[in-house]
Amino acid sequence: MPLLLVLCAAVAATGLSLAGRGGEAVVFALAFLAVAAVNSPLVFPRSVSASEALRRSAADGRAVVYWRPGCAYCLRLRLRLGLRARRLHWVDIWRDPDGAAVVRAANDGDETVPTVVVAGLPYVNPDPAWVRGLTAAGAQSS
């Protein structure tokens, strides 16, 4: 999706520029690029597979966050966590079918994200402040 947004921005900005509306073209392109940036997987910590996340979680006690690009609630959680987001294990369900299966099992067949799994218990779209509190716990320290 971010790549599609960048492509649309380029096409639209080129059209506006050719029409002699260079200032509007720049503003339009910047707006589209900003939307593409916040929907990019690059905003999130590096995703791992569901099996790797579960293995790491069992070893260090940290929560696993199941997410997908383009999800406004996932982005909200990510931004509210700030640098603490790196203390959690992130699984992109669009890249990992096993991760998607975990989310569907926790949500009666729906792929509702973010789904945060703590000690084997799933929490669907939890309050970012609550998740932030998980990262402050003794087992979550880096």
Task: Please describe what this structure looks like.
The chain has about 140 residues and is α+β, with helices and mostly antiparallel strands. It contains six helices and four strands; from the N terminus they run αααβαβαββα. It has helices at about 1-20, 20-40, 50-60, 70-80, 95-105, 130-135; strands spanning about 65, 90, 115-120, 120-125. It has a four-stranded mixed beta sheet. The longest helix has 17 residues, at about 1-20. The protein is elongated.
List keywords for this structure.
142 residues; alpha+beta
Task: Quote the CATH topology of the largest domain.
Answer: Glutaredoxin
The CATH superfamily of the largest domain is identified as: Glutaredoxin
Give the DSSP E fraction (strand runs of 2 or more residues).
Answer: 5-15%
Helix content: 40-55%
Secondary-structure class: alpha+beta
Unreliable residue stretches: 138-142
H/E order of the elements? Answer: HHHEHEHEEH
Short note summarizing the structure:
This protein has 142 residues and is an alpha+beta fold.
Q: Layout of SSEs?
A:
Blueprint: H1 2-18, H2 22-38, H3 50-60, E1 64-67, H4 72-81, E2 89-92, H5 97-106, E3 115-118, E4 121-124, H6 128-136
Parallel strand pairs: 1-2
Antiparallel strand pairs: 1-3, 3-4
Helix pairs in contact: 1-2, 4-6
